[in-house]
Design the sequence.
């Protein structure tokens, strides 16, 4: 019974610790997290600023660095190195759950004695971490922090390898360049207009000032263009300035028009970045890299209840959750936290499903999303199409389907081979009718489906070896658990007789004691 007890304990003592670990993972590894985007920008800043001195030294540039700046850059490089050492350890720690993997290895039936079980647990716990260490990004991270070992600092190439980490944090750069690319035509027009404005007025002022003998400051056309750039940017160093009335008049016109053009360019750039953020917010983001996540296809009161339970139990902190629907996000009656992603699109299209990583999802929920003009039969047909698409793209996913019509449930069961099917309104109606005949049944049902105190499904071989259900019942009662059903090859046998033979491959549903 240890596996049942341990499975339930995981919900309590280490909850905050696990939440913190997932928060660290989202910052360092989850590209769809806003925290990761902010961290990438910060890490890019550290990489670029900490390699300035290294580049000057490596390229033997004829630039003399002031002694105080040289001392600062050396100290700053050491601080950044230690920062990335901590980052590497944090990534190694957050990439997998060692305790869960250890428990799985320790409980392996192939491991006989205690020492062998201990070795199996350690090997299973370290396996995903060692696999991560062999990935290209992890190798770059390791090479970048090797200069923390003092003798290795003499190897200049190791110090410069830190610049390769820019590849890891490239998502931040991609977001900026992506925003610029989307508005490239507009930026091209504005930049060309600004260039022509500066060149035209610079040369006009140069001609006027040359005519008035101001050749000490306006020595050439290039000096005039330099003056135009400095002036239109409102910096105005004062080393070059017009002395004639005509030159000052032209300068006033240039500044007035230039302020408008520069402001337009700044506004366009800001709008492009804001639009980029709105794209993420409104669900145009592609999430192909998600793994072992939950995908909810469609939106209705059933999906809303599922999401509320996910939020209440903080499941979204443990694994990514994605909602795919044509319903605008602003029409949701609940506020989605940042850890639940929204994808706007029709879930009956394959490319939409692939953009949310449906092929690597662990659980897929397909609800009966109502659309104007569609009958219940057509809605169930859309659900069936989406179900077949999901099964084709990800045969290993756990699929849960909601249908509207009773007769359609048989189609899903027999032809599409879906076991987890809920007929909309049927369960609620049965529970309410049961409460009429047996007052208090509703409270009992709510307790049975409670995440922390309700039914738990466990494979028999993970509990022990039993000849009959009676043996399993006697064993479980010693630990205050009650086996209430056996699942065999997709069929559920509720409260089987004591002499019912139990197989290792069966699943048993346990109910814990308590209020």
Sequence:
């Amino acid at each position: 019974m240890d596996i049942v007890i341990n499975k339930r304990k995981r919900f309590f003592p280490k909850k905050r610790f696990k939440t913190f670990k997932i928060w660290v993972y989202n910052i360092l590894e989850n590209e769809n997290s806003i925290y990761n985007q902010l961290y990438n920008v910060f890490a890019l800043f550290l990489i670029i600023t900490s390699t300035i001195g290294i580049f000057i030294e490596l390229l033997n540039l004829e630039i003399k660095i002031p002694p105080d700046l040289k001392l600062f850059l050396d100290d700053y490089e050491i601080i950044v190195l230690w920062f990335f050492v901590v980052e590497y350890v944090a990534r190694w720690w957050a990439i997998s759950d060692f305790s869960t993997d250890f428990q799985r290895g320790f409980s392996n039936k192939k491991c006989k004695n205690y020492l062998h079980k201990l070795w199996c647990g350690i090997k299973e716990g370290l396996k995903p971490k060692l696999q991560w260490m062999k990935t290209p990004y992890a190798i770059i991270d390791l090479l970048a922090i090797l200069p923390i070992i003092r003798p290795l600092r003499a190897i200049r190439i190791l110090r410069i390898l830190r610049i390769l980490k820019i590849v890891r944090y490239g998502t931040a750069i991609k977001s900026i360049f992506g925003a610029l690319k989307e508005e490239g035509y507009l930026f091209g027009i504005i930049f060309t207009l600004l260039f022509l404005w500066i060149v035209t007025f610079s040369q006009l002022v140069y001609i006027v000032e040359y005519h008035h003998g101001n050749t000490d400051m306006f020595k050439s056309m290039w000096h005039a263009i330099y003056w135009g750039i400095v002036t239109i940017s409102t910096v105005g160093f004062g080393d070059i300035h017009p002395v004639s009335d005509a030159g000052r008049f032209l300068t006033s016109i240039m500044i007035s028009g230039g302020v408008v053009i520069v402001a337009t360019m700044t506004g366009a750039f800001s709008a492009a970045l804001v639009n980029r953020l709105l794209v993420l917010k409104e669900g145009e983001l592609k999430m192909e890299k998600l793994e072992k996540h939950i995908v909810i296809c469609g939106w209705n009161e059933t999906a809303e209840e599922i999401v509320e339970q996910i939020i209440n139990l903080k499941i979204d902190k443990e694994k990514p959750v994605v909602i795919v629907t044509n319903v605008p996000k602003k029409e949701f009656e609940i506020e989605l936290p940042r850890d639940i992603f929204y994808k706007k699109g029709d879930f009956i299209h394959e490319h939409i499903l692939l953009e949310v990583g449906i092929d690597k999802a662990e659980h897929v929920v397909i609800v009966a999303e109502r659309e104007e003009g569609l009958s219940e039969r057509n809605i169930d047909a859309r659900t069936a199409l989406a179900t077949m698409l999901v099964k084709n793209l990800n045969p290993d996913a756990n699929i849960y389907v909601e249908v509207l019509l009773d007769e359609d449930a048989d189609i899903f069961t027999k032809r599409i081979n879906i076991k987890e099917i809920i007929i909309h309104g049927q369960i609620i109606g049965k529970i309410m009718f049961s409460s009429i005949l047996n007052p208090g049944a509703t409270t009992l049902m709510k307790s049975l489906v409670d995440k922390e105190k309700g039914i738990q499904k466990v494979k028999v071989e993970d509990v022990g070896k039993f000849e009959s259900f009676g043996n399993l019942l006697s064993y479980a009662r010693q630990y205050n658990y009650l086996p209430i059903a056996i699942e065999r090859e997709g069929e559920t046998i509720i409260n089987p007789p004591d002499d019912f033979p139990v197989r290792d491959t069966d699943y048993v549903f346990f109910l814990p004691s308590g209020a």
Q: What stands out?
A: The longest strand covers residues 481-488.
